[in-house]
Each structure stands twice: as C-alpha cells, then as structure tokens.
Known about the structure:
With 148 residues, the chain is mainly α. The longest helix has 42 residues, at 79-120. It has helices at residues 4-16, 31-37, 53-72, 79-120. It contains four helices and no strands. Residues 64-83 are annotated as: Disordered.
Amino acid sequence: MKTALDEYLDALRRLQDNNPRIVPKNSKINNDNVALEAGRGKGSIKKSRALFADLILEIRTAAEEQRKKTKAEPPTGNPDVVIKELKDENSRLLRAYEEAIAREVSLLYENDRLRTQIAQSSYGNVIGIEPHLQKRKKNVDGEDGFDR
Length: 148
C-alpha cells in the first residue's frame, strides 16, 4: 500500500513529466499543485511536518528546473500544434469562467430566496430586546438600581 509521501512523490513526477491527471498541463510546480495532483487538499504539504522536509526540497528543485526550462525555451514548434494547444487552453478557461459565473448567479439567487423567506416568516416581526431593557437608576437609596 502506498503511503501519502509516495503519492506526493508520484504526483511530483507526473508534474515534472507534464502528464498530470488532476491539475491542468503546464501547471507550475509548487506545494499546492503537488498536493492537488496527489488527490489531497491545498496546503496539506506543510513545512512544519518533518515527514515532508525532503519532499519540499524536491519540489523546490523541480520548480527551479521548471522556471529555467520555461525561460530557456521560447514558444516554438509547429504553428498548428501551438494554435490547437492555445484553443484548448482557451476553451478550458472559458468553461471555468462559465462555471464560476453559474456559481455566482446561484449564490445570488439563494441569497435573495433566503432574504425573502426571512421577510415573510414570523421571525420578521421579532423586536430586539435592547430597547426594552430596564434602565439603570442611580443608586441613591441602597436598592439594586433597577426600575421596577
């Protein structure tokens, strides 16, 4: 059975080979993307855990290699392939944008529905208790100081 560390290392190798299963291709190599590619949550690779010390060093090394490689390689190649990759990336981003807009509209609708529900409920008639609190009197006669 694979340990969590093995899963993180496998995810790092897939990112280095630019063959990820979960995150988009050409994603930057960093702790969060390695964690996501391993099927874990963002931020699950923590510097404070001694178990991850070597993994974090490997991620940093791989990220530095990726940066050097990206700077050294100008975008060349078959123009048809480059255009296809850009169109694929464009359609992926458009899909993500439309999903985000759909979530936003859904949340606005839910917010409006809940506001309407509150306004129509019997709780809309509730009056706060602050105005009805008894005011404190100056304690001159030794009583507890409240109007009764």
